[in-house]
């Protein structure tokens, strides 16, 4: 490299002088627009870089604005989802209140139509014993409830109170195996004893072989023994079982009251009204 510079020193010096002269002339000589040729050349060289820098700057600015916009959209979406969730919860609450109001209306209507005195109780628990079909309600002796009082729904008989505390009561459902209710077939007036089968059905016992009973018959309380008022609907016969021997025939019955999904019951407290032959 040093040898090259030594051999061509004069030529290189000449080129440098020419370049310096050109720069001086370019700095002094102006074009018709008043711009020196040196400045024009500088602009020509720098312009592409400035354009690229401006493009990158605009692109970055656009990306940043999009990012800020997406953050705003995300926040807005989260707020809207929370609002939708809150509104759904309120709608469900209103539906529950509406159903409860409708249920209470039906229960009040039932009491008004039948003339019974009663207390509406909410089911708050079930017996953990799989062999027992009982429910707890949130009404007790402080509300006028006593042992032995019938539990009904607008659809029909549900059970009977077997234990009472100040603020709660235990109701044995008619499908419990220990439940026995004097009943009769509404159409033929045939009398029998309704006994629970432990599942969701009952059966009619002590029904004479000569009695007229068939599928679809409505069964009501007979009023015998003074425990249940007469005429409360119990259920419908689903099957008649008559053997070739014996004194009695049997029948299966499906309760009208939704004993498998009770939410509320009416405890009939007007026991004195049970003696009027209703």
Report on the structure:
The strands form 2 sheets. Strands 1-2-5-4-3-12 form a 6-stranded antiparallel beta barrel. Strands 6-7-8-11-10-9 form a 6-stranded antiparallel beta barrel. The chain is built from 3 helices and 12 strands. The radius of gyration is 48 Å and the shape is rod-shaped. The protein has 2 domains: 56 residues, no CATH class; 156 residues, Thrombin, subunit H, CATH 2.40.10.340. Helix content is 37%, strand content 27%. It is of the alpha+beta class and 278 residues long. Strand 6 and strand 7 form a beta hairpin. The longest helix is centred in the first third of the chain and has 78 residues.
Class from secondary-structure proportions: alpha+beta
Helix share, percent: 25-40%
Give the count of structural domains. 2
Number of helices: 3
* Beta strands, count: 12
Set out the fold topology:
Elements: H1 2-7, H2 9-28, H3 37-114, E1 118-126, E2 134-137, E3 150-152, E4 157-164, E5 169-173, E6 180-185, E7 191-196, E8 202-208, E9 218-221, E10 233-241, E11 248-255, E12 264-268
Antiparallel strand pairs: 1-2, 1-12, 2-5, 3-4, 3-12, 4-5, 6-7, 6-9, 7-8, 8-11, 9-10, 10-11
């Amino acid at each position: 490299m040093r040898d090259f510079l030594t051999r061509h020193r004069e030529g290189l010096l000449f080129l440098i002088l020419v370049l310096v002269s050109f720069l001086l002339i370019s700095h002094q000589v102006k074009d018709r627009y008043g711009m020196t040729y040196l400045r024009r050349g500088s602009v020509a060289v720098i312009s592409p870089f400035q354009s690229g820098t401006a493009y990158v700057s605009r692109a970055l600015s656009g990306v940043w604005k999009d990012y800020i916009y997406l953050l705003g959209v995300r926040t807005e979406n989260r707020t809207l989802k929370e609002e939708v969730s809150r509104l759904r919860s309120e709608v469900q609450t209103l539906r529950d209140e509406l159903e409860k109001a409708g249920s209470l209306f039906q229960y009040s209507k039932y009491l008004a139509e039948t003339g019974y005195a009663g207390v509406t109780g909410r089911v708050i628990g079930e017996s953990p014993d799989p062999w027992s079909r009982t429910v707890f309600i949130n009404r007790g002796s402080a509300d006028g409830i006593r042992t032995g009082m019938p539990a009904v729904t607008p659809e029909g008989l549900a059970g009977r109170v077997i234990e009472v505390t100040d603020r709660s009561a235990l109701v044995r459902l008619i499908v419990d195996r220990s439940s026995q209710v004097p009943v009769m077939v509404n159409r033929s007036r045939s009398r029998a004893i309704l006994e629970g089968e432990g599942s969701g059905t009952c059966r009619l016992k002590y029904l004479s072989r000569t009695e007229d009973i068939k599928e679809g018959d409505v069964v009501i309380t007979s009023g015998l023994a003074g425990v249940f008022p007469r005429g409360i609907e119990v259920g419908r016969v689903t099957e008649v079982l008559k053997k070739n021997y014996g004194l009695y025939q049997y029948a299966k019955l499906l309760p009208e009251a939704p004993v498998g999904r009770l939410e509320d019951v009416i405890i009939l407290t007007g026991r004195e009204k049970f003696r009027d032959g209703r």
